[in-house]
Automatic annotation (TrEMBL), chains A, B:
Protein's UniProt keywords contain Isomerase: no
Naturally occurring in which organism (per UniProt): Brachybacterium rhamnosum
An example molecular function term from Gene Ontology annotations: transaminase activity
Keywords: Aminotransferase, Pyridoxal phosphate, Transferase
Keyword Transferase part of the UniProt annotation: yes
Cofactor(s), by name: pyridoxal 5'-phosphate
CDD domains from the UniProt entry: AAT_like
Name assigned to this protein: PLP-dependent aminotransferase family protein
SUPFAM superfamilies: PLP-dependent transferases (SSF53383)
Coiled-coil stretches noted in the UniProt entry, renumbered to this chain: none
Amino acid sequence: MTVPETTAPFRFPVAGRYAGMASSPLKSIFDLAAAAGVVSFAGGIPDPELFDLGTVTAAYDWVLSHQGSRALQYGVSEGEPELRVQAARRVSRTLPTDASQIRVTSGSQEGLFVVAEALLEPGDVVLVESPTYLAAVQAFAVHGARMVGVATDDDGVDPAALEEAIRTHHPRMVYLIPSFQNPTGRTMPLERRRAVAEVLLRHEVPLIEDDPYGELSFTGVVMPPIASLPGMAERTLLLNSMSKLMSPGVRIGWIRGEGPVLETLAVAKAAISMQSSVVDQLMVARYLETAELDAHVRTVSAVYRERRDALAEALAPVLPAGAHVTRPEGGMFLWAALGEGYDAQEMLADAVAAGVAYLPGWSFFAEDPDRSTMRLSFVTHSPAVIAEAIGRLGEVIARHGGR
Amino acid sequence: MTVPETTAPFRFPVAGRYAGMASSPLKSIFDLAAAAGVVSFAGGIPDPELFDLGTVTAAYDWVLSHQGSRALQYGVSEGEPELRVQAARRVSRTLPTDASQIRVTSGSQEGLFVVAEALLEPGDVVLVESPTYLAAVQAFAVHGARMVGVATDDDGVDPAALEEAIRTHHPRMVYLIPSFQNPTGRTMPLERRRAVAEVLLRHEVPLIEDDPYGELSFTGVVMPPIASLPGMAERTLLLNSMSKLMSPGVRIGWIRGEGPVLETLAVAKAAISMQSSVVDQLMVARYLETAELDAHVRTVSAVYRERRDALAEALAPVLPAGAHVTRPEGGMFLWAALGEGYDAQEMLADAVAAGVAYLPGWSFFAEDPDRSTMRLSFVTHSPAVIAEAIGRLGEVIARHGGR
């Protein structure tokens, strides 16, 4: 056999939609943030001390000793029946749901990808909050969709702006994170949810409602999903995840929907990954059946609330006049806009040099980024570590103020 | 809030590429095959009696008690380091591989989808064996690729036909399953692998080499992948899976590649599912480190060989003159072409009525299906069950012979 003499090494052809994504700017930020001695607020990384490891381990043990052969065998694309029953039971607290209306996914990210795969055509417009969760945007973008950002205020997406954008862009779907939003931490009050639902109903636009954080409430109030409002259940795909409530490493979430689209979701899921880990699915079903999940979520939320307080208190004195900062009543993230003259991306190198990292906010905007913004997760560190690190960030902000 | 009065229920818009796939013909076949009292040869379902459940359970136990917090935490899109080291060690038996060249996927299906996502543009041609594995075809088809089948003989794909197809169709890539192919069970001898590599090298066409069955050898001979031939490593993405060697329920596989495409594969994987289950990845790493996997695979292969023998012996007297049947030297599947006048799809209802099911072969052809073909998996049932069921299938074949 003769190998052709070529000087250039062989290069795999890469699809155009990924050609520009080869080196993500976020990857380099996370690499920076992971440097030794840096206190990072960049990722939404749960404190491992808060994992309910004993109960999870017991659930794995039980599955392997009682359902071992089945756990190691092929399952079905829709998801294992026990898990769908447990998921439906949990969703039914706010939205009556049958197990047949649940499709299991390998975490919310796969859920968003399955939805995009099943619904989106190249050139479709997806309306998103401005700012919004960037990994969702990526799942939509690689399907050739164009994201259009809709203006938000402290109560979430603005209904008038949403209606205007629907009229202008004829979107395939609207993507919202109504509770403890990523990146802002904001929650839509019930009145706003109703107004948004009315707009969506009037224009017959489907809703993709992403709700991974809703139960992590600091006030005890868990808002009903928009999907539960009159007329909305059949035109909403509601995504939940166990990542924030139990474990992100296990990668189990689900989509709740109605009607023929459920079949398409299962076909898309089969094309993407056949089925989710049967062991993990059965473990989560067992966990949901046996764990005191509500009590666990209350414990975690109480800790997160203390840390939210610590972050908010530490930030208040170091933010410049004119800065705007959210005060999330749950979830994992806080959002600060430093205002005119600040560039959070540009400031990051100095912050890292001072031993503190955050996520610059520009990447969360589909268009017209506010470059003075930053996302800070309050879930990873203790109040003392937060206070100390934000003090150092304050010095960096002060140095950048005069620029 | 007013709900618009519409008589028709809301229907989610579905992407065109899935519109025709809403009710898969195979799903109804598998539903038929799963009926009570039917001995099914349709799926490639391992006998659960052969699972190495004790070792798998011990590996989960070890991970949860030694790496519990990490196992429940976020991981990385490339895959957990320990698993990549173990995968590289295993691949290196035939192809020197560093852990950095491994990308972990949630089973081979996600591996194929990640590859399609990273490489394929709508309208691209993918050359495939005729017949080939239909779930791979689906992963490529939903990316808008057009599959072109290349003629095969008992030694696999025909190099002259491959070269002709490359000249005619300018494919983006070639997809092959060289060892114990699905659906035929055929294996390409080394000479044929060399000839195929030469064609691919001459035309600079990348190879997607799918090798989930190669170690399930009945002769002790495990063929080196085409990727290991001179010049081929850098232009091949080699896919392996633990599904056939350890457990399909755990959904762990990997892609072995070289160069910049590795980065694109990681970005695509992140968009699709962020990362595979960290618990499952660490468990497989521990399993590969501690289990006597080669001995386990020998045990499983010995049982499969007996069953292959039972199936081949039972089939020989009941096949019509002029039928062609493969005699696989490993893997899970045997392929029979009944020949002129037979339609395996049409015959299936009678077969199921007689209590036996198989997979009609037409669906494995990208074009010009031979409708007289059927795929039979020999891994699920004992020799006695196989003999009895194939006897009944023989009566059905005989009844269809005169049509």
